[in-house]
Amino acid sequence: MNAEVQCLVPVARFTPPPLHTVKAANALARGYFKPQFTGLENVNPINPALLVGNHTIYGMLDGPLLFEKLYESKGIVLRSLGDHMHFKVPLWRDVLKQSGAVPGTRENCARLMEAGEHILVYPGGGREVAKRKGEKYKLTWKTRTGFCYMAIKHQYPIIPVASLGADDAFDVVLDAYDFMRTPVARRILKSKLISNQTANGDLLMPLAKGIGPTLIPRPEKFYFSFGEPIDTRPYAGQENNKERLWQLRYQVMQSLERELEKLRVMRAGDSDVGLWRKLLTKRK
């Protein structure tokens, strides 16, 4: 099977799991993180869109809850474009494939758009997952404009979707910068295989702690906000214009940051937290 056929298989032959299976799989996380959603009226089931989100630490906690909510409330089976790094993680890659996620390539994205799917992408990719100290909710998009190219080319509206809570469930103890300063790291990264797999150390995951010294995440409430769709029709035919790509990227980034700020305000005014959650998190 050649690479192109491998690319087509998960797009063309995907059968979504039943909603009850998704809800059962998410039952523990749903009760633990108690997700709240706002702006769902901005997502139209009959008008496919490219949802652009902020990636949170480790990239595994909030995505399944977002998938479930859109499936349950809108009948939308969200197709995710995942960083290749995710598909190298045992078990997690199986969860991704079963939920319809595909490697984030332009070819996969094009086929999903041609099929009229609702698509989720995180422009920050693996680097935004591999948080450094002080990078909570920071958008680390480097020079990526591919999602803008695809949205313009296929005339897909872009919906910013912000996620707040997951980055507060952990504290980063050691990050990639700490590791790469050590003689051991410098020696390890001399290996071309390891260097390539980690993008020269860029994708090294942080060592974090949640409850006490453990990796159990603190039970922070999760908040999600869907912003107003960004119309890409004014950019029609300009997918190869770098200046226009950067203009659209900036527009999306600003909109996403506004949604994150809305969620911070929402969280600050949320009194429905509960004593046990207050005790195990840093909420006052």
**Number of helical stretches of at least 4 residues:** 12
Catalogue the unreliable spans: 1-9
Give the mean pLDDT: 90
SSE pattern: HHEEHEHEHEHHEEHHHEEHH
Trace the largest sheet across and list its strands. 1-9-6-2-5-3-4
Shape: globular
Largest sheet descriptor: 7 strands, mixed
> Could you give the count of β-strands?
9
Strand content: 5-15%
Helix content: 40-55%
Give the tally of structural domains. 2
Backbone structural class: alpha/beta
CATH class of the largest domain: Alpha Beta
Instruction: Predict the CATH topology of the largest domain.
Output: Glycerol-3-phosphate (1)-acyltransferase
Tell me the span between the first and last alpha carbons: 56 Å
The Rg value, from CA coordinates, equals 19 Å
CATH architecture of the largest domain: 3-Layer(aba) Sandwich
Using brief descriptors, characterize the structure shown.
284 residues, alpha/beta, Glycerol-3-phosphate (1)-acyltransferase, 2 domains, seven-stranded mixed beta sheet, two-stranded antiparallel ribbon, 12 helices, 41% helix, disordered N terminus
Describe this structure in words.
With 284 residues, this protein is of the alpha/beta class. It folds into 2 domains: 3-168 and 219-268, Glycerol-3-phosphate (1)-acyltransferase (3-Layer(aba) Sandwich); 171-216, no CATH class. Helices cover 41% and strands 12% of the residues. The chain contains 12 helices and 9 strands. The chain has helices at 3-12, 19-33, 63-74, 92-98, 106-114, 125-129, 146-153, 176-180, 183-188, 192-197, 242-268, 275-280, and strands at residues 36-38, 50-53, 79-82, 102-103, 119-121, 158-164, 171-174, 207-209, 223-226. A 7-stranded mixed sheet has the order 1-9-6-2-5-3-4. Strand 3, helix 4 and strand 4 (102-103) form a beta-alpha-beta unit. Helix 1 (3-12) packs parallel to helix 5. It starts with a helix and ends with a helix. The model is unreliable at 1-9 (pLDDT under 50).
